[in-house]
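Why do we care about 3D structure at all? Because function follows from shape, and shape follows, mostly, from sequence. That is the central idea of this module. The next example makes it concrete: a single protein chain, its amino acid sequence, and then its structure expressed as tokens.
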Amino acid sequence: MDTIIGLGQAGCNIADEFRKHSQYKIYKIDASDDSDQNDWSWASYDLESEVSVFERSGVCNILRQPGAEEYEKNCPTLNFLKDIKGEVLFIVGGAGDISGASLSILEQLKHCSISILYIRPDINALNLIKSRQEWVTFNVLQEYTRSGIFKRIYLIDNLQIEKHLENVPVIGYYDKLNNMIVSLLHMINVYDHIGSVIDTFSNPPQGCRISTIGFYDSELHENKLFYLLDNVKEIRYYYAINKKKLETDSDILKKVREQAESDIKTSYGIFSTDYEEDYVYTIAHTSEIQRQKNEKST
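And the structure:
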């Protein structure tokens, strides 16, 4: 990941979490009622004009629309997108009307290698219109990803993260969840770009572009995934282990192999760290479109 683009409130909040790590370039796109402020984004202004807006506010505001369909129909051309290169992580939450602009914005990024981070809301708490809107966005982005238009889609369910964390407060609820999401994605990204002590990594099976992230609980001997994927085809483990332990503990490799044993295809990498505690991060992949929904979306 080189560039992070957040769309809507949920996407922008998570994009802000990535600011803790200097290697990412962050862009945010959200809605505003102030049409005077947003004229620049609906017109064909040059790149310098758009950059100056980012420098002042840190966010590209587009004019608020009455619903998801209107966002899709009226999505502006955002000239700054054409200047973005390399790998892009596009973050969007399915509950917001502005998610209707996703495909129009992603079309403007087709020259990049795009992965999507999709935040699925509590679908049983949505009204009928929001539920149907989320269902369409959820499925369309998966279909496009499986077809190869996008590199990968990471599905996240906040309710699943909440189950895996202890003492999540009401105030700061999303801050804690977003911090967990970004921490895991960042570390996985780091380990994908540095050398391991040893690994058995290989490319995921053909077509397995629908994924989620999580961590392995060594005490309970179970994966804590951030989305309950149906029909998982592969799980990849990233073992971040203290360097001194790697130098002195001759049983580590044996334990890693035992933990990785499964009916599902698995691979692992062991990475040396200076952390006192050890961590195990996971990515699960499937080729199957996820169809979990609530009754309101039918």
